[in-house]
Amino acid sequence: MKEENIKNLVEKYKLGNTTLEEEAYLFDSVKNTEEGLGNWANFVKTNKKVAPNNFNDKLWNSFEPKIANKYSFRYKFFGAVASVAVLITLAFYSFSNNEQSTEEKELLLNEARSMFTDNETIIFEDELIIVYTKQE
Is residue 134 within 8 Å of residue 119, measured between CB atoms? Predict the structure, then answer.
């Protein structure tokens, strides 16, 4: 069983599908089963390097100030530009008089009606609804 398990691990290792624990088990248990794998196991054992205990913390601590300084100015600058753009847009639309009077709206409606050739007569007209009939 152990020989078959090692062969399966060797195949997985050659395909690159082993975990770190499986690789450690493979290199510790392989002595002279395969010539190339035994040499490779010796090479890995002799050249293995271990990272310091707090390596990740030191790396993150060295990255954080650089990242924070790099992006903080951009965020502040684009935030100020966006705020100014919003204020200008609001001022432009609040001070402009784009509303049409009732007469202008009525003229535009009559002009749009005249573009159609169908004869329509109004049966009922109210503030909210207008009912038409079509004569052919």
Answer: yes
